[in-house]
Amino acid sequence: MTEQASAGPSSAGTRLAGIVGWPVAHSLSPVIHSYWIRKHRLDAAYVPLPVRPGHLETALRALPALGFRGCNVTVPHKVEARSLVDEESALAGTVGAVNTIFVRDGRLIGANTDVGGFVDGLHEQRPEWHRSGRRAVVVGAGGAARAIVAGLRAEHGDEIVIANRTVAKAEEIAAQFESVRAVGLRELEAELAGAGLLVNASTLGMGNGPTLDPDLAGLAADAVVADIVYVPLETALLRGASRRGLATVDGLGMLLHQAVPGFEGWFGVRPVVDQDLRKHVLATLEK
Ligand code: NAP
Predict the structure, then answer these.
(1) pLDDT at residue 207 is higher than 50
(2) String of b and e for 193-218 (b: at least 16 CB within 10 Å)?
(3) Which atom of ligand 1 is nearest to the CA of 143?
(4) Rounded distance between C-alpha atoms, residue 215 and residue 33, angstroms
């Protein structure tokens, strides 16, 4: 699924960025950034950069010398990247992971755009979500859940509950924020009573693995149900929510929106997440 593009033959002035990960061949980031590069007719290229564990420091340190404007960082390097950048944003520190790096005057600046990506995707698809004035419930306590709790905490005044199979991991995140509680997955349905937002930030529902399909009867009638899993795009959780007439948000919004700040910082154009991009990425996913 690799894809790379520039508006024409590359030149000495071609602006470069890419995604560092292992494996990285199935990342959708090259599809997204290459779409925007073509759309804006930029002399730029965004390439997959397969970097084995143990080689991250060498790879990141080479970026300025190779003329890269920066890169995205994905599994398994997001946490280690923090210790290798020269400076990190406050959000990257809060989340404990760097997913975007900007090269500035030869220095590496680390950021985390998953936080804004989730919230912007929610705003785009369900702008009413934060008006509910009710509890938000997040399932999962991995890297994505931490970014989502940070994003929700900044935007949402009400209580947040993290439900996770391993309660200790949820407790660790909850301790970082005001008004955030941790519970086990068995308590999920009880916590849904009257809640206004449910987000699946775990791997449940991914591919052919175990699903998340709780009884949603307790949720407020105007609740929003979001899933950040995007393969498949319509998870069992979202199907169940739709059947109940609840508003849903799929995982593509976060994926597309988290790419915006990187593209803008590397290439100097703020790209737009629109239906054409969504269709383009969906077509790639369906291949
Ligand atoms: P992660 O750090 O590995 O965390 C995985 C989470 O899933 C943990 O909370 C884990 O619980 C839970 N989990 C895994 N298997 C489970 C099972 N059988 N039963 C119950 N809980 C289970 O992963 P991550 O990086 O946070 O990513 C989570 C998901 O979000 C992935 O599907 C990823 O593709 C997706 N994601 C989407 C976007 C997007 O842009 N849409 C961005 C980032 C991630 P334990 O703590 O108990 O192990």
Answers:
(1) yes
(2) eebbbbbbbbebbbeeeeebebebeb
(3) 26
(4) 38
For the chain, give the mean pLDDT. Answer: 94
Model confidence pLDDT, tens digit, residues 173-193: 999 999 999 999 999 999 999
Sign of CA dihedral 2, 280, 115, 174: negative
Ligand 1 and 254: CB distance under 6 A: yes
The predicted model scores a pTM of 0.94
Report, as an integer, the average pLDDT of 258-267.
98
Q: Does residue 98 surpass a pLDDT of 70?
A: yes
Q: What is the percentage of the chain residues whose pLDDT exceeds 70?
A: 95
Cα 67 from Cα 11, distance rounded (Å): 12
Give residue 150 CA to ligand 1 midpoint distance, Å: 16
Atom of ligand 1 nearest to the CA of 140: 9
CB atoms within 10 A of CB 164: 25
Q: Is 273 in the pocket of ligand 1 (CB under 6 A)?
A: no
Above 90 in pLDDT, residue 127? Answer: no
Q: Can you tell me the distance from the alpha carbon of 265 to that of 100, in angstroms, rounded to the nearest whole number? A: 10
Q: How many CA atoms lie within 13 A of 11 on its CB side?
A: 5
Taken in order 233, 236, 241, 242, the sign of the CA dihedral is positive
The pair of three-digit structure tokens given for residue 139, joined into one six-digit string: 């399932």
User: Does the CB atom of residue 23 touch ligand 1 within 6 A?
Assistant: no
Q: For ligand 1, pick from 202, 231, 233 the residue to mutate: most ligand atoms within 8 Å of CB.
A: 202
Q: Ligand 1 in contact with 144 (CB < 6 A)?
A: yes
Asked if the model's pLDDT at residue 216 lies above 90, the reply is: yes
Predicted confidence (pLDDT) at residue 2 exceeds the cutoff of 80: no
Q: Is the CB of 235 under 6 A from ligand 1?
A: no
